[in-house]
Amino acid sequence: MSLDHAILGFLSEQPSTGYDLKTRCFDRVARSVWTADQAQIYRTLERLEKSGLVTSRLIPQPGRPDRKEYAVTQAGRRALREWLETPHPLPPLRDPLLLQLLFGGALPDDQLLALLETARDGYQRRLEDLRKDAGRAASESRNAKVRRMTLDGAMSQARASIDWLDGAIDRVRAGLPANGDALGRLTR
Predict the structure, then answer these.
(1) What is the three-class DSSP state of 16?
(2) Tally of CA atoms within 13 A in the half-sphere of 40 that contains its CB
(3) How far is CA 34 from the centre of its chain?
(4) Residue 87 pLDDT > 80, yes or no?
(5) I want to staple 71 with a disulfide (CB 3.0 to 4.6 A). Which of 15, 28, 51, 132 is the partner?
(6) Are 55 and 70 in contact (CB under 8 A)?
(7) DSSP-H helix ranges across 31-104
């Protein structure tokens, strides 16, 4: 499971609390390629600890609750290495926009355009965020260079989606045939 391995990867760099994993790792470093909410992170840490892939220790804090810090074990490092070395198949395509568009012929052109333009705006914002992240990744270390390749891949995907959406918007604006099929008779 990718979340397990992402957590193992972050912990292999430095021990962290669940909160640090959420805010420092997933919200900053991995946000372009993988998201995780706090509850998922804590459930995964619990499972990884039960499996012997991570350990935890309590760190006392005067006047505040103890911090629980997690570290990767040797078994966790082996599991991470095995995952990194294993080619994985492409995930199944599950894109809500493409599914909407599959049935979008039932919409009038103005609503279809609004759907496409909203998606395009979202991809444009994503691309701008990725460019900002890439601008901050200026280190010459090996990890920084590989992370930059990751951002380059995410930017390429966003640009490809924008290009495709621009083409789809142009097609709708150029005029589509009238809708005479059963889906076209959908009512509110």
Answers:
(1) strand
(2) 13
(3) 3
(4) yes
(5) 15
(6) yes
(7) 38-50, 74-85, 96-102
Short-list 62, 57, 71, CA closest to 16: 71
Which residue bears the tokens 């979202």? 122
Closest CA to 41 of 14, 76, 10: 10
Question: What type of residue sits at position 61?
Answer: Q
Neighbours of 33 (CB within 10 A): 15
SS3 77: helix
Whether the predicted pLDDT of 81 surpasses 90: yes
Interior/surface letters 93-132, b for 16+ CB within 10 angstroms, e for the rest: eeeebeeebeebeebeeeebeebbeebbeebeebbeebee
For the cut 60, the answer to whether the pLDDT of residue 184 exceeds it is no
- At 115, which amino acid appears? L
Rounded Cα–Cα distance for residues 177 and 137 (Å): 47
Q: What is the torsion angle, in degrees rounded to the nearest 10, for the CA atoms of residue 75, residue 80, residue 86 and residue 91?
A: 130
Distance between alpha carbon 102 and the CA centroid of its chain, in Å? 24
Beta bridge partners of 56: 70
Q: Are 167 and 125 in contact, with CB atoms under 8 Å apart? A: no
Mean pLDDT, residues 27-35 taken together: 88
Tell me the C-alpha distance between 15 and 19, whole Å: 12
Which secondary-structure segment (H or E) carries 71?
strand 64-72
